[in-house]
Amino acid sequence: MKFGAYLLKEKGKIDESELEDALKFQQENHIILGVLAVRENLLNNKQLNTILDHQRVSGALFGDTAVELKFINENDINRLLLLQNEKHNLLGEILVLYGVISKNDMEEELKRFHEAEGAKKNHLMNRISI
């Protein structure tokens, strides 16, 4: 089961139209470069916030600002730009962005989802080895 179906069917935390809107957003929009840089462990949150603060003042592009501040190099930016076309925003992030679910609720439900999925896999592995 996927996380969206879990939130919809198992927990009743979201309704079908909210899930459809989030999935459409996920499909149509690329992940923000700064978020991707943090996910790829090229930046930490403090560095990301520093870049965004400078960017607001200068109006420069994210990559140019990150390189200017010497947080990452041009090769890293080029790699992130390639990854940006392949990666998507996470469903939970979109639902929080839309205000459908709070960040704390999303994190708690994601934890429960992974625990439930892990338990299902363990049960399946036990049945296979019997």
Structure write-up:
This protein is elongated. It folds into two domains: 1-29 and 88-130, no CATH class; 45-86, no CATH class. It is built from eight helices and no strands. It has 130 residues and is an all-alpha fold.
Strand count? 0
The major pleated sheet works out as: none
The N- and C-terminal alpha carbons lie at a distance of: 24 Å
Quaternary state of this entry equals: single chain
For the residues shown, what is the average pLDDT?
Answer: 89
Q: What's the total helix number?
A: 8
Sequence stretches where pLDDT stays below 50 over 5 or more residues: none
Portion of residues in helices?
over 70%
> Helix-strand pattern, N to C?
HHHHHHHH
Q: Please tell me the total number of domains.
A: 2
Structural class: mainly alpha
**In what range is the share of β-strand residues?**
under 5%
Radius of gyration: 18 Å
Shape: elongated
